[in-house]
Amino acid sequence: MTRLSSLVQPRRADRRSRTVLRPLAAGLMVATVATVATVATVATVAAHAAADPLPLRVGDPFPPLNGEFLTGRSVTLPSAGQDRVTLILMGFTYASGHPVGAWGDWFREAVGTPPGVTFFEVPMIGGFAKLGRWFIDSGMRKGTPKALHEHVITVYSKTGDWKKRLGHSQANEDDAFLILLDRDGVVRWLHHGPFEPTRAGELAS
User: Among residues of the chain, what percentage have pLDDT more than 70?
Assistant: First the structure.
């Protein structure tokens, strides 16, 4: 009579199969974990690469930049200067307001805003300063003639990306960063630094 216990216990061949399959399964598990880890690492590197913007160069289309006019109206560059030659003057620190203002004053006096030409001063405000947004915007509105309220665009997001695009560093953090766009929103001239008459002449030529 066949014993029940003999049916429950695995056969010797089955035991050998399990002995062979256990290390194979373990090896497959290690290989799977290694593959997943590799894929995750590649994905992380790719994500970081995608997150790091490339330096802005002459000939590049100007990337979209969202902000607000001092009037409170939302605006996006370069579309705000569509079909016009546009000078963008960026500053990333409080001290950069002086060179940005000097370049802006020169531009308004020497070039003005004839048909087909415009300019925008763009304070780039990041870090803890964003917490004082209402006070910052209010102060700028009071200190800026109303006629220029739609020539000043405040930006409070992605300022770090723009620092990378423009080569901003501790050595030049208080510079004005100038970008000249053609009518199609393509970068045609780049410069950063204090106001310089010789560079201004280069810009105007």
Answer: 75
Interaxial angle between packed helices 97-110 and 197-204, expressed in degrees from 0 to 180 and rounded to the nearest 10: 50
CA 184 vs CA 87, 116, 155, 179: distances in Å: 13, 12, 22, 14
Residue 186 β-bridge partners: 61
Which are the contacts of 137, defined by CB distance < 8 A and separation ≥ 6? 68, 70, 154
Phi, psi of 160 (to 5 degrees): -60, -40
* pTM listed for this prediction: 0.73
Q: Which amino acid type is present at position 133? A: R
Contacts of 152 (CB under 8 A, 6+ apart): 69, 70, 120, 121, 122, 123, 140, 144
Label residue 113 by pLDDT band (50, 70, 90). confident
Radius of gyration of the chain (CA): 30
User: Looking at this protein, which amino acid is placed at residue 109?
Assistant: E
Q: Looking at 32-46, 57-71, 99-113, which range is the least confident one? A: 32-46
